[in-house]
Design goal:
3-stranded antiparallel beta sheet; 5 helices; 164 residues; alpha+beta
Amino acid sequence: EIGISDRREAELAKNGLMPLVHRKNTDMAAFIGAQSLHKPAEYDDPDATANANLAARLPYLFSTCRFAHYLKCMVRDKIGSFKSRDAMERWLKDWILQYVDANPETSSEATKARRPLAAADVVIEDVEGNPGYYTSKFFLRPHYQLEGLTVSLRLVSKLPSEKQ
């Protein structure tokens, strides 16, 4: 066991590692950062670079992946019950919009915890040349527990359907 300085912790976090750091003046240790090993792109626009950095952080990746996983499971469980692509898209949008807070500026912390998204959208498209499959695009913008910046996350997935 060795103590890791704040400077060394920042260096490790910048490279995608999460050291277990002793919390000063306590008998506890914690993981401070939550970077992934993905190196985000750097842009001319500082806001775009900050957005890319946040999108590479594990809490945002986990929340996006959890929503996407649940959406895919719901579609899997309802294979054949949608009459059209539009019906599937409408149903998924109605579901995801339950988690969007329409007024995050005035909402309580409890409301923000129940509705962790500032915006969301689902787009379902036919896969050309591959009947029976759709491409889904999930657009999620979380607002709860963000670090003062806006991060938008997009996930593209393939969904089965019951087409003849």
